[in-house]
Each structure stands twice: as C-alpha cells, then as structure tokens.
User: Fold this.
Amino acid sequence: MTEWKSALQKAREDRQTATDENSARVEGLKSKLLFRFPALSDQLLTYRNAIAAVRRDDERSLKQIIVETRAALRFGLCCASFESDAARSLFQDHAVMKCNLHAPLASILSLQGGDSKCRTLSAQLLSNLVTGNRSTSQHLASSLPISPSCESISEKILQETFSKEHLGNISEHIEGKSWVDFLLFAIKSGNREAAGAVAAALHNCIISLDKRNDESWSFVKRVASDPILISTILRNIVPAKAPLSDEEQDHWDGATEWFYLLLTRLMNLGMMSFMYAGISRSPLCEIHSVLPEQNVLLHCMVKQIEESKEPTDMVGSAEEETYTFLAGLFRRLLELKSKGGMADDDTALLDSAISSVLEILATVLAADSIQTTTLREHLGAFTRILQDCSSELGLLVDDLSERTVGVKTREMKIPQEKQNLMTLLVRVLANLSFRCEQNQDLMRTTWIPRKDPSENVDSSPRSALHVLLSCTAFSAACFTLREWCVIGIRNILENNVENQNVVATLDAQSPVQTAALSEAGLQVQMDSKGKVSLSTLKE
Assistant:
C-alpha cells in the first residue's frame, strides 16, 4: 500500500531542487517518482468503484479511500506542476502515454456523486496533464469525445427514470466520459470550482494544440461547433445564486473566469461563427430568433474587445472571417426586426443582439492600424454592413422627423434606446469611413429609400451621406450623437473632393407646407438666402 502523504512530501522536496539547468537531478526523478504512477491509477479506480457501488456496507472504509485518494491526487498534481519544463513533460508524458492516467480521471469526473474535493483535484490534475504539452493534448483530444453519445444519453434517461437495481448491468456497459459530462456533473453537484478546472483543462488543451494542422484544427472546430458544450458553458457562466448587483465582478467566480477564457480563446481562433450558429443548430440564413445563450456569447465578445488594448488582435489571422460573419448576422437580425410579430422577451433579445454586434464593429474599427485599414476595405467590398447601417439609420431619421414636426429644438426628446442605436450606427459608419476612400465613396453613392414619403417629409433622393447629415438635426436631444456625427462627417469628407463638393453644393431646401399649418391658416416662406418666415394664407 502506497503512503501517499510521504510520497507527496518527497515530491514537493524534489520540485524545489529540480531545474532545467540540473539535468542529472531531473533524470533521477524517473526512479524516485515515476514508479508511483501505476499505483496512482489503481487508487483512482478503487475510489471510482467505491463511489459507483450500488450499496455501501462500510462507510468507514469509504472515508479512508477518499482520504487516500485526495493525497494521491495531490501527489499527481505536484508532479505535473514542476517548474522545470523537462521534469513536467517527463511526468505528463509518462502519466498519459504510458499509464493512461486520464482514463480513471475521466471516470471520476463522470460520476454523478462522490467527494467534492476528489472531483476538484481530478479536474485540476487533468488540466495540468495537458498544460504546455502538445503530445498529451493530442492524446486527450483524440480519446475523449466532446459530448456524450446518443447511447450514453439514453442510459442517463433510464437512470433518472428507474432505480439502479431495476437497470441491472446497463450502467456497467455504458459510461459517459465526455467533456460535457465532466462539466454537467460538476455543475449539478454544486462544485463550480471543479467545473472551472474542467474548462481550464479544455482551454489548456486547445492552447497546446494551437497549430493549424488538420488534426488539431479539427478538434478546435468540434469544440466550437458542439451545441451542448457551448450552451452548457453559456448557461452556467455565472453562478445560479449570483448576488443581485449592478457590478459585473460581483457575479463572477473562478469558474466564470475559466468559462470566459475558453470562449474568448475560441473567438481568437476565428470560431465565433461556429459557436453562434451551433447554439441554434441552424445556419445563419435559417435563424428565426435570438437565443439567450447567443446573446451571452455576443456580450462576452463585447467585453473582450472593450478590455483589449488592441482590438484587432482579438481574432488573430481570422479577423476577416469573424467580422464578415458579424456583418451577415447584423443583416439577418435586421430582417427579423422588420418582420415584427415577436413577443416582448424575444424583441428584447433581438435588440440586445443588434446593439452588441454594432458595439463590436464600432470598437474594432476605431483602431488606427494596418490590420484595421485592411478590415475596413474588406467589409466595404465584401459585405453590406455600410449599406445596412445607413438604411437602418435612415428609418430612424424618418421616424423621428415625423414625430418631431412642429416641436421646438429645445423641447425635442428622443427615447434612450433610439439614442443608443443611432449613436452606434453613426459610430460604425464613421469608423468604416476613416481614411478609406472606397467606403467614403460608398457613403456618397449608396441611395437610401425613405420610410413613407408624405407631404410632411422631404421626398427628394438621398444618399447615405445625406442621412448622416440629417442626424445633426437631432443633436440637441443627444450630445453623444452630435459628437459622433461631427466625427463621421469629418471622416467621410477627409481628402475626398467629391464628397466635399456634395456638401458644399447643398442649398437650403424648399419649406414643407404641412396640413397642420394650412389648417391654422399659416404658410411657410423662404427667401433666396434661405431665411424662413411665416405668413397668413390671406397675405
């Protein structure tokens, strides 16, 4: 029988002295520590079998097994956390490639019950076994499925419906050992620390495989595209009993941090489109609503970009794919919005998703770098984000123009949600046009139809540039909108003679004689200098 406490103490002493510079000391670890790994694996299996037993006749013996298993896991953790890269790799390779230590760890993490500390330590050890080690990461990526099989799910349903005594030996032949199982059983047991460690293991595995070869990239795509895994993470990203507070950090714990790191790592690898579409299991063109999980995913991306010192680094070399997807998503969301007929909750989710997409694009495009310049040109040439933003802004301008007819400037009020949306749209257009002649020209040549031409509203043709200029009429009601309109006009006119000529030749338009004015017996007049005056119809 292995004395795990004394073995742990010796391992801690060796960890202090083993360094990459002392190769002889590292080599000596083979005879001192490696021989204990088979016993470690046996200890984990003993614990697993004791917990999985239908009947437990000796509780005292079970407690002893738990104590020994905790010590054994701490020994493994110590060996897999040596500061010496050579020593750590030695232990990791031996544990996974020779002893298949990940198999009993997976069995423990797939148990519905068990000791909370053993579950946490098992998840932490699994994470340490793949940290910075490409070989062990590849082995786990190929041996552990992302989600449970259909057969495994059927068995779980049976277990929840009937007692184990009625099931006979079914559970002996079928056992779920997937990343989703690890997460779900940790969360169901209320052990968020273990759930965070599982996410850390998957995150570290992906980092170690961060090479775009076929096998590694296939694993990353499978992780990002798995709807059960991504939805499970998003649904549990904050504790179920998070305190009621406006402060974001009050809702976060260690598990939240690792969930967030895993999601943003996948985003950095250009997996945003796979995650978003995978949640609803539908391609973009077939999305008919916004799910809460999709909204959380977008908020995670907003948070990461806001915290990033260089937003364009967020998606690495895959930035064009990610932002092209977001431009297409924005277009699809506008189509859903135009159809209407949604419940209030669904409408709120849709509006939130639209704002998140605009916030992401506006923030990323604000950077002044070579990558951002390339991204502006790409979005202008291969997506309709500029046209879609201009059209939506035109609808808002038309709606506000109708609502504010006859309202004095100082009395003009715009609902907060419309202020926010208009400002986001103007921000995107302003940043798309920054030192990008192609997009500046698009602002001049993109024609925007009016909502409902009427006698109260000017019906002359207008471009996206005209729409942006029209927003200045509402600047008194929204200071932020005014500031961004100024920035947008500057960016669109900068070094673009044709756009400058369009603005320079804008004359005061003829006044609009509304039905209300006619009923009041008043007529609007304007002289050659653009000065407006009122007179009675009799005059």
Remarks:
- The CA atoms of residues 268 and 313 lie 8 Å apart.
- Confidence is low (pLDDT under 50) at residues 164-174.
- Strands lie at 522-526, 532-536.
- The two ends are 112 Å apart (CA to CA).
